[in-house]
Write a structure and sequence with these properties.
alpha/beta; 7 helices; 5 strands; about 15% strand
Amino acid sequence: MTEALCIDTSVMMKYLCPDEQTSEAIALIANALTQQTRLVAPCFAWVEVGSVLRKKVRVKLLTSTEADQLYTAYISLPIDYIDTETLRLNAWQLAEQHGMPTLYDAVFLACAKAESANFWTADDAMLNLFSPRPAYVYRLGD
């Protein structure tokens, strides 16, 4: 599963936001863009990223102008947003299989699986649910 990447919101924020940026996230996404690797995400991923940016404005970690610029940068990324009935069903099954409390993370997993993509996350709480971790799931920084 190396022809595409599914980037979790936790990693995307470490790419976009100055207060969270990490060299690993920047390198991962910059390399994907340079190599023209297909980026995929669930259809609601833009909402999650936008919501995090709005929260950062609310708690004064970003100005409104900074958030606008980061959101514009995000929506300009060449991401294929995925939404199918099969994806929805598989997300439910993955959430059940791994004991996930919400569907948000499970939809990212299902998206990666459906699109034969590697899934990258910085969400340790989610990673701790896996035993064993699926082969297509990677932790940023490992």
